[in-house]
Amino acid sequence: MFFVFDVETIPDFEFVRQVIENPETDDDELLIQASEDLARNSSGFLPPMYHKMISWVGLWIENNGMPKQKVGWHGTDEKEGLKKLFDALSTYKDFGLVHHNGRGFDLPLLTYRALKHGLQMPKRLNHYDIKYRYSNDNVDLLDEFSNYGASSWPKLKHLGYLIDIPFKQTGEGNEVLKMFREDQLAEIEHYCYEDVMATYVVWLHLKYTVGDIDKELFDNLNDRAMNKLKEIQDGE
């Protein structure tokens, strides 16, 4: 089994204020200050340590790509959300992971936040099959398409354009904080679900492209996935 997943976060303002000297009192001004002091990228997006989780969605799929079950959560009680995610990951013993930049953000985030809340993660997440960068059981689309960093890392949205599929219809990552402030937590999970389905669709195309699944199976799974993606984008 594979778990295709994504998490949505907002900055952990309380923690950021603890680590910055003379922090700004206004949250938006604090983000600008934190981007300058803490970010290690040109976008100013903070490293995973300085985020808190407000939603996650996962899609269980069989090894041949057949979808099994969607699970998810949204809320303000991060500890509760982590517990529910770890419980979901305990459904199967030897699961694999599929994600887009999960190695760089989502998985480190889960470790930091479990550490903060005194929670124990599923042992599988620390297994060699998951930790090893070139593992077939932990598929990061960034690594798969960039040849493990030898080439540039593609955005998920741009991969959608490449295969003529419109992604990111319900929101953008930089809008999540605004949605959170407007108490649109259910909408954030819905947006997260679209990201998961987009990741799943790109993974299916990749599996077919490299010859891991045949055309008949690909066409069947892709048609089903596209119908579900359209439902999500239509707000269903």
Can you describe this structure?
The chain has 236 residues and is α/β, with parallel strands linked by helices. It has one domain: 2-Layer Sandwich (Nucleotidyltransferase, domain 5). It is 48% helix and 15% strand. It contains 10 helices and 5 strands, in the order βααββαβααβααααα. The chain has a 5-stranded mixed sheet with strand order 3-2-1-4-5, sandwiched between helices. α9 packs antiparallel against α10. The longest helix is centred in the C-terminal third of the chain and has 25 residues, at 185-209.
Major beta sheet, specifics?
A: 5 strands, mixed
Query: What sequence of helices (H) and strands (E) makes up the elements?
Result: EHHEEHEHHEHHHHH
CATH top level is Alpha Beta
Rg value: 18 Å
**C-alpha end-to-end distance:** 26 Å
The assigned CATH architecture is 2-Layer Sandwich
CATH topology grouping: Nucleotidyltransferase, domain 5
Uncertain stretches: none
Class inferred from helices and paired strands: alpha/beta
Total strand segments: 5
Question: What name goes with the CATH superfamily?
Answer: Ribonuclease H-like superfamily/Ribonuclease H
Adjacency order of strands in the biggest sheet: 3-2-1-4-5
Helix content: 40-55%
Measured by DSSP, the beta-strand proportion falls in: 15-25%
Average per-residue pLDDT, rounded, comes to: 91
> What is the molecular shape?
globular
Count every helix, treating DSSP H or I runs of 4 or more residues as helices: 10
Domain Predicted 3'-5' exonuclease PolB-like: 44-233
GO molecular function: nucleic acid binding
InterPro entries: 3'-5'_exonuclease_PolB-like, RNaseH-like_sf, RNaseH_sf
